[in-house]
Amino acid sequence: MHVLVVGGGGTIGSTVAYTLATQHPSLEVTLADPKAERAEGHAIDLFHSRSHAAHAIGRPEFEASTLGDVSVVDPTSSPEPDPVEAADAIVVTASEPRSSDSLERGGRLSVLERNLEIASDLGEWFASADPTPTVVVANPSDRVTHRLWEASGWPRGSFLGYSLSETARIADEIARRVSAREPSNGDVSPADVYCPILGEHGEHIVPVFSRTTVDGRPVEFAESERVEILDYVRSVPYDVIEMRDNGDSSRWVTGRGISLIVSRLLEGGTDPDADPVCLATPLDGEYGLKGVTLSVPVVLDGDGVAEIVEWDLSTDERERLERAAESIRESLGHR
Ligand SMILES: NC(=O)c1ccc[n+]([C@@H]2O[C@H](COP(=O)([O-])OP(=O)(O)OC[C@H]3O[C@@H](n4cnc5c(N)ncnc54)[C@H](O)[C@@H]3O)[C@@H](O)[C@H]2O)c1
Ligand SMILES: O=C(O)C[C@H](O)C(=O)O
């Protein structure tokens, strides 16, 4: 199996590559980045990190003969053989560098114009290869996913815009709040919280409070609490950036979430009886929306989105989803 990480010399791309390479020692990983030397620095380090584990430290983690390679290509030099053709899954983290405008809430939109141009170029590159499931991380991820889909000519189900970190963030905040309500019951773990999030990866997130559970039981929040929960989810990635000297965004939760999605794609999809996962995919009438890409519940197979699941939403959730769609359409110039 082969994964291509486009933007693999950067923070998120190299973190995804590390996570995948250590989880799947035989996986071939290619890092595509115009900063090829920087990518090569990651590739050498990554290869050492995975080959390390074949040596006996008490016992080897895997058989040395199954070790996969980590390689680098410069996408601007028409690499042959084409790594897009070789890939079983692609991750796109290619992005304009973070600017001073991107350091606060709403900052994802500051790289819109340049990242749409990058997406158009990548789409042209991808177009000559067979459709391959592609997880899009570069921000603003829903708009970039939409542009990449349009430019590639691949089926819409090939594209999955990544927005899942918000699910981890909201679970953490809900666990804290529910624990504080009844301290005598002990702490609730975020692992016991289920709160899917639809909509935009940005200010227009739509937490589905009507389906939220703690330990499998429905949980209610007053409107004032919902506002505070939303505020936390929107702000915390920017607090993380600031705490890390405005250098990198949330590489660990993002790297882990993307690696989980890629792992499921390589295994042939999600379990049919598991909860759907919320990822951005181009819509064609689902939820009454067309010509826009935003996060909705999806079931995965080995090619990408096998099915978009249409949940019954509350009136407030539906209106918020429509507002998210409007905001995305507007910034793409689609009215
Ligand atoms: N969706 C999410 O949840 C989420 C989370 C974190 C970061 N992000 C976004 O992911 C993107 C990457 O973040 P980062 O911190 O890794 O940035 P980064 O600047 O460290 O890395 C971006 C990399 O893309 C490369 N690149 C630029 N143009 C390219 C092209 N045409 N082809 C291939 N590579 C190209 C750059 O050389 C650089 O190495 C940003 O847009 C960021 O906002 C999204
Ligand atoms: O890169 C960012 O601006 C933040 C990122 O989208 C995140 O959710 O961590």
Order of helices and strands: EHEHEHEHEHEHEEEEEHHEEEH
Radius of gyration: 20 Å
Helix/strand/pairing class, anyone?
A: alpha/beta
Discrete helix count: 9
Name the CATH class of the largest domain: Alpha Beta
Largest β-sheet summary: 6 strands, parallel
How much of the residues is beta strand, in percent? 15-25%
Arithmetic mean pLDDT: 95
Bound molecules: nicotinamide-adenine-dinucleotide, (2S)-2-hydroxybutanedioic acid
Helix content: 25-40%
Q: Which segments are poorly predicted (pLDDT under 50) over 5 or more consecutive residues?
A: none
CATH topology-level name of the largest domain: L-2-Hydroxyisocaproate Dehydrogenase, Chain A, domain 2
Binding site for NAD(+): 7-13, 33, 115, 137-139
GO biological process, one term: lactate metabolic process
Keywords: NAD, Oxidoreductase, Tricarboxylic acid cycle
InterPro entries: L-lactate/malate_DH (IPR001557), Lactate/malate_DH_C (IPR022383), Lactate/malate_DH_N (IPR001236), Lactate_DH/Glyco_Ohase_4_C (IPR015955), NAD(P)-bd_dom_sf (IPR036291)
